[in-house]
Amino acid sequence: LLVILVIRSSDSYMIVSGSEIKVSVRSAIIMPKSKTSTSCRLQQYVLEFKDTFTSDGKILYCQPCGKAIKVEQRSQVTQHLSGNKHKVAALRQAKKQPLISEPVPSASIQPSRFSVYCEDLCRAFVSADIPISKVNEPQLKKFLTKYSNIDTPDESTLRRNYLPKCYEETLAHIRSICQNEKIWVSIDETSDSTGRKIGHVVVGVLKNDLEISKTSFLLTCQELTATNHMTIARLFNEAMQILWPSGVQFDNVLLFLTDAAAYMKKAAVGLAVSYPKMIHVTCVVHGLHRICEEIRALYPTVDKLISNGKKVFIKSPKRIEIFKNKNPNTPLPPTPVVTRWGTWLAAVQYYAENMDGFAAVVKELDKDDASSIQILQDILSDSVLKNDLAYISANMCFLCNSINKLESVGLLLTEAVSVVEDVKKKLNALHGHAAQKIQKKIK
């Protein structure tokens, strides 16, 4: 019995018949399809679709659209040609409004006008603090497309392809200024509209140059899992690694500025081990605000006047009209926010200066219209109210100016110390039961 075995290897077929072995080359049996090189395929597309594509042998470049396209399969080329964006671009080119005016170099593909436009658009939105989502507004997109003669990209395109480059450029600029320089670091925590805890890190250079010392940078902004000393310390270290990716310059961090929260002070104590030259300073303006809160707590009648005074005229055009008719040259009562430094004392000064005109309007209003009107009418009959307003306005409202001075950019250290010393001197000169509590608070 004759047995024939056919063994297929990668390169040949081996026919085994008894002791005889015959080898036939695979190419003689099966002829493989020859693969066309990439450059040849690109050249075929250029010849086939004249005045549409150009190529440098590596990339197929669509002239009307101003961008390179994928050519792994022929279907990708035909799909691009049948797309609406290409048809619109080709129509513009036919009307002698080309998107690309420069020829494609043979050595490499230069950045297209479209990509340059997208990059500049993204950078403009970021620098102007305009949300990138606004680019999807139909009227804005139509306006930009009409006057730039380039299709305006979608928000997702800017975020995915161009926003990271803007971030890297900004970060490189911050690093170039802070490299090998002594710096200060400030950290604060707040809550966003959805209730998440967000930590912000701001840095600046400590240098004997007023222009440079005025400049500060928001280095990073991160969500915190909790508000405690561990998350603040972790945020601080991560920010320094972002600033100095090749190695944290521990000796160059000289000043750490925060509020006087207990977890901030505890975080600073722990960080002092790694940053030996760092001094922790709590915000003195925040301290002055705490004194303003103490004043507010000591005068509940004045506080009730301010809180109800703004309620009476909010969303009431009729009462506003009455007020303006009675007091044409007087502004409406202010609407202070207790968490905004100094606004409560500014409201006290307003009522001290315009008490008579304000009281005349409130007395004319119907107390049955709103509970705040009745409360105000009862308060205005209190004889002590005017005395309290006059006392606070004369002796404590200067704190508003002190806070504004300390908040100004570029204030010299000697000037800041002088402002604080002046506050201490004026408050310590006061007399009375309330003055003693305020003096205890400032200590």
* Global geometry: flat
Instruction: Give the terminus-to-terminus CA distance.
Output: 114 Å
Indicate the structural class: alpha+beta
* Global mean pLDDT: 83
For the report, how would you describe the main beta sheet?
5 strands, mixed
| Total beta strands | 11
Give the C-alpha Rg.
Answer: 37 Å
Task: Give the topology string: H per helix, E per strand.
Answer: EEEHHEEEHHHHHEEHEHEHEHHHHHHHHH
Which ranges are low-confidence, i.e. pLDDT below 50, for 5 or more consecutive residues?
9-13, 15-35, 96-110
What is the count of helical runs?
A: 19
Strand order of the largest sheet: 9-8-7-10-11
Helix coverage percent: 40-55%
Strand content: 5-15%
Structure description:
This protein is an alpha+beta fold and 443 residues long. 53% of the residues lie in helices and 14% in strands. Strands 9-8-7-10-11 form a 5-stranded mixed beta sheet. Helix 11 (284-298) packs antiparallel against helix 17 (398-407), helix 12 (300-313) crosses helix 15 (371-380) and helix 14 runs antiparallel to helix 16. The radius of gyration is 37 Å and the shape is flat. The model is unreliable at 9-13, 15-35 and 96-110 (pLDDT under 50).
